[in-house]
Amino acid sequence: MQIEPPVIDYEGSDYQASFWDRGEREYEDQVEAIALQRLLPKSGKRLLELGAGAGRNTPRYSGFQQIVLVDYSTSQLQLAKEKLGNSERYIFVAANIYKLPFAPIFDTATMIRTLHHMAKPNSALQQVQKAMAPDSIFILEYANKRNIKAILRYFTHLQKWNPFNQEPIEFSELNFDFHPRSIVRWLQDNHFEIERQLTVSHFRIEILKRIIPLPILIKMDSLAQLTGNLWQYSPSVFIRSTSKKGPTSENYDGIFRCPVCGGSQFEETENRIICASCSRNWSIRDGIYDFREPLI
Fold this sequence. Notes:
By secondary structure, this protein is α/β, with parallel strands linked by helices. The protein is 26% helix and 26% strand.
């Protein structure tokens, strides 16, 4: 029997409040906003936000007609729903990254501060590819193990693991750093063609954040991001790639595809969505589609 990879669950977590709202992470938030602005298409029909959490980045996707927010945690999605409101522009989906329930109709997808929780990153990227329309844009952020701080710590014997080794390093449970070459290889294996790379959060060092005024620090990082195609030694790297899989001949009436049988026809009631092909049911609760486990 195949064992499914573990997933991290932020259910009931105060991550948004403790890490972003009160965690003195304005520098990281603002430089990530700059990277997204540089890489995102100006407009689009459907954007798939993977690892949306409480919707921190969602307002930055203003040029898209429809945004589907995906997270494993329903409590995080509820926070996002409270923040964004009940607009039909937003669809909230609780799902397992290794069993995504989407038809290949998205012209853009983002995965920011999410891949570092993936024990099987290649399998996760394969699932993303299955949700992408031909020639669509995928923006991926990953935690870079080959960063300057890790290199210095390695050469001064303050850490044992080698930042130049291409194997992922799990520095705490379900928290991984990845080598840039591994990320590029996995993207290419899954038919993504890399267009541009940006290196981000170069100055994620507490003493620098204390002594250098925030606007100056952001400007410095904004300029340093532009070296991303040449080298990647920052703790965070953003990649824009294009899906190069073949065109699909199928027509899809909606955004969903059954994660069990692959069917694309569904019946929807007030509190359930039912696959017409295999009759499996999933719950709809408080406006959130829950595709983590079928009810039947």
